[in-house]
Amino acid sequence: MSRKRTHDSDKEMDSGSEDSSRQDSEAEAGSDAEEKEKEIVDVDFEFFDPKPIDFHSMKRMLMGSFGDDAEDFNLSGLVDLILSQNTIGSTVKFEGDDDPYAFLTVLNMHVHKDKEPIQQIKDYLLKKAEKRGAALKLSEIFNGQGHVGLLFSERVVNMPPQVVAPMLKMLVEELEWAVADGEPYEFEHYVLLAPMYRETEAVDDDEGGAKKRTGPTIDAYAHAEDEFIEEFACAKFDY
Question: Quick check: 97 and 110 in contact, CB under 8 A?
Answer without folding.
Answer: no
